[in-house]
């Protein structure tokens, strides 16, 4: 028994194509593509009547727990260092395991309703480390989204906290299965001692995965890394053999060209987070220079990747360095395909059936040549009508099928209130 999507316009991002064809899905895979496919006797037929069948989006750098900070009346930091010390780190310290799981469900639900089917999350909850990635996975599992999870190892809570973080990130990477995978995570380089870098290298060898970390979000990363540890971040990461085609660096907004070139030469993925950079007032990352392995992430902002793609293009245009937004989105699929060792993104036979149905009535011709402009100026999360992950419908008629949004929101508000109370006591 399969599912046949009939009469839709099937979209692919790179090379761009828009074609009116049918898809047949069996199990978790697309098994046939063609004009006017004949359904089998037991197949479910979904008549799309000209709606778009779009690849599920990939958010390459998220901070799921930050959904509980939305609206928190917080100090106004005077610098990036103050932002970390007065806002971001105290919030992470206030998280407990229950809050972590509730946040994953709430942010995962928001993500899938906005068309994201795969999330890469870099998590930190220093007072609730052990089991935190499993709780994230449980929260995401409720929604049905695909997740790649890492714990951000750091020395800022001392050697014991560092070792606890290493154990958590390696332990999850070893046992993650199905829709979940693990990575080794790290905090900013200036929070990592030489012992921590050595531990990260050992963790990468043990887990067989790559490193997910923030890099040069602000000039503070290079200044403090050099002052405290004798070398700038890129030099230390290269000396530790931590950069590779499996590694992912988020932000990368403040690297000299020589350093950026060295990072690119290792094949490391670069994840552009324009709305977060604007919100944190850390400046514009030169995304046009990020090379062939650049993608998009939302960091701690809202989980709307369509909005992120639009912001990324418009901000790059303003900077006089316009990026190819379709390539950035398609690279998310390449990254997910690499991690899950399966074709994710192409709407072709053999690919994993992670896809969206978009109810988008185009006011102008929608073709391969015009697709990018529709993504930048027209398409949005408001058009997401149905979402399939691994061949299973997770959203139908704009309604999540496995969770009650009102219950999720109630639980998130309760968890946020508890976290905010702990923040106010510090």
Automatic annotation (TrEMBL):
Record's keyword annotation contains Hydrolase: yes
InterPro entries linked to this entry: Amidohydro-rel, Metal-dep_hydrolase_composite, Metal_Hydrolase, MTA/SAH_deaminase
Coiled coil: none
GO molecular function ontology, one term from the record: hydrolase activity, acting on carbon-nitrogen (but not peptide) bonds
SUPFAM superfamilies associated with the record: Composite domain of metallo-dependent hydrolases, Metallo-dependent hydrolases
Signal sequence bounds: none
UniProt cross-references to Pfam families, sorted A to Z: Amidohydro_1
Protein name (database record): SsnA protein
Residues covered by the Amidohydrolase-related domain: 52-393
Keywords on record: Hydrolase
């Amino acid at each position: 028994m399969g599912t046949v999507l009939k009469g839709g316009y099937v979209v692919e991002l790179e090379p761009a194509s828009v074609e009116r064809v049918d898809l047949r899905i069996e199990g978790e895979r697309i098994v046939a593509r063609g004009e006017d496919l004949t359904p089998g006797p037991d197949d479910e037929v979904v008549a799309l009547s000209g709606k778009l069948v779009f690849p599920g989006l990939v958010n390459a750098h998220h901070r799921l727990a930050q959904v509980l900070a939305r609206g928190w009346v917080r100090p106004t930091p005077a610098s990036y260092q103050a932002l970390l010390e007065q806002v971001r780190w105290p919030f992470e310290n206030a998280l407990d395991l229950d809050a972590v799981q509730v946040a994953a469900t709430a942010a995962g639900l928001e993500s899938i309703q906005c068309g994201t089917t795969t999330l890469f999350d870099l998590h930190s909850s220093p007072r609730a480390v052990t089991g935190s990635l499993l709780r994230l996975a449980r929260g995401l599992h409720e929604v049905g989204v695909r997740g790649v999870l890492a714990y951000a190892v750091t020395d800022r809570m001392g050697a014991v906290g560092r070792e606890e973080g290493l154990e958590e990130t390696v332990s999850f990477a070893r046992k993650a299965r199905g829709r979940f995978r693990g990575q080794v995570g790290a905090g900013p380089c200036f929070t990592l001692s030489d012992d921590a870098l050595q531990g990260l290298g050992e963790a990468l060898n043990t887990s067989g995965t790559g490193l997910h970390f923030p890099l040069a979000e602000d000039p503070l990363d290079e200044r403090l890394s050099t002052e405290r540890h004798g070398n700038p971040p890129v030099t230390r990461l290269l000396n530790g053999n931590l950069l590779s085609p499996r590694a992912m660096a988020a932000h990368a907004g403040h690297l000299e060209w020589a350093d950026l070139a060295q990072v690119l030469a290792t094949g490391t993925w670069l994840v552009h987070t324009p709305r977060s950079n604007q919100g944190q007032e850390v400046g514009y990352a030169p995304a046009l220079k990020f090379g062939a392995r650049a993608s998009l992430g939302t960091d701690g902002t809202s989980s709307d990747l369509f909005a992120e793609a639009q912001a990324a293009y418009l901000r790059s245009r303003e900077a006089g360095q316009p990026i190819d937004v379709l390539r950035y989105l398609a690279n998310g699929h390449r990254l997910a395909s690499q991690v899950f060792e399966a074709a994710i993104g192409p709407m072709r036979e053999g690919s994993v059936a992670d896809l969206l149905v978009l109810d988008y009535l185009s006011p102008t011709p929608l073709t391969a040549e015009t697709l990018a402009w529709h993504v930048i100026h027209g398409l949005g999360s408001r058009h997401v009508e149905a979402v399939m992950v691994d061949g299973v419908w997770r959203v139908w008629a704009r309604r999540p099928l496995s969770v009650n949004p009102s219950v999720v929101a109630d639980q998130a508000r309760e968890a946020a209130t508890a976290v905010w109370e702990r923040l106010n006591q510090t």
